[in-house]
Amino acid sequence: MNIKKLLRAPGILWRYGFVRLFSLYYYDQKYLKSKWFEKYNSAGYLWAYKDIWNRIIFKTNKHLRFPVSPLNFCGENMIFHPDDLNSLAANSGCYFQTIGAKIVIGKGTYISNNVGIVTANHKLSDPDQHQEGHDVHIGKKCWIGLNCVILPGVRLGDNTVVGAGSVVTRSFPEGHCVIAGNPARKIRDIHP
């Protein structure tokens, strides 16, 4: 038997038990049934372990019912498939604002670091107030590159790739395309 695995096992088992115990209080159980929690030493348990400690000590993201990186901010009204937890738990610097609307993320979508998705902007006449929120829908099997911003009301169709650093100001509901730039425009189509 590998001695490193043997020495590491008690820590992994302790982390597994810790997460299982506290997850009953903090998480919706459907997320713990995802592919990220199939084995006791899988990535999901490490994400949840870090998240639970941050909730206890630093009081971050306590309103959420799923594990999320302490370096991300997520609004309450997000809809995504439990198997896509990696885009929220493993990344850092992401901002998902859900003021007066919701963010819907399709299955199999990957979101890189430092992505901002917002559902409402500030009023120009009064910066303390928000405009009415508009839902943001991201289709299945999309890829949102590093440092992208997706603005209120945007709808991205299935298999859309958003290039790094893009600002998406309008919808691309047809999908199957690469978009990039500020403001984002269609660069080319993706043929299945």
In terms of topology, how is this protein built?
Layout: H1 3-26, H2 29-32, H3 43-57, E1 73-74, E2 78-79, H4 86-89, E3 95-97, E4 103-105, E5 110-111, E6 116-118, E7 136-138, E8 143-144, E9 149-150, E10 155-156, E11 160-162, E12 167-168, E13 177-180, E14 185-189
Parallel strand pairs: 1-3, 2-4, 3-6, 4-7, 5-8, 6-9, 7-10, 8-11, 9-12, 11-13
Antiparallel strand pairs: 13-14
Helix pairs in contact: 1-3
Task: Give me some keywords for this one.
UDP N-Acetylglucosamine Acyltransferase, domain 1, alpha/beta, globular, 2 domains, about 25% helix, about 190 residues, five-stranded parallel beta sheet
Give a count of the beta strands, DSSP E runs of length 2 or more. 14
Instruction: Return the CATH class of the largest domain.
Output: Mainly Beta
Helix content: 10-25%
Domain count, please report it: 2
Number of helices: 4
Strand order of the largest sheet: 1-3-6-9-12
CATH topology of the largest domain: UDP N-Acetylglucosamine Acyltransferase, domain 1
Which structural class is indicated by helix and strand composition? alpha/beta
The major pleated sheet works out as: 5 strands, parallel
Shape: globular
**Strand coverage percent:** 15-25%
CATH superfamily heading of the largest domain:
Hexapeptide repeat proteins
Return Rg in Å. Answer: 18 Å
Order of helices and strands: HHHEEHEEEEEEEEEEEE
Low-confidence stretches: none
Distance linking N and C termini:
46 Å
Mean pLDDT: 87
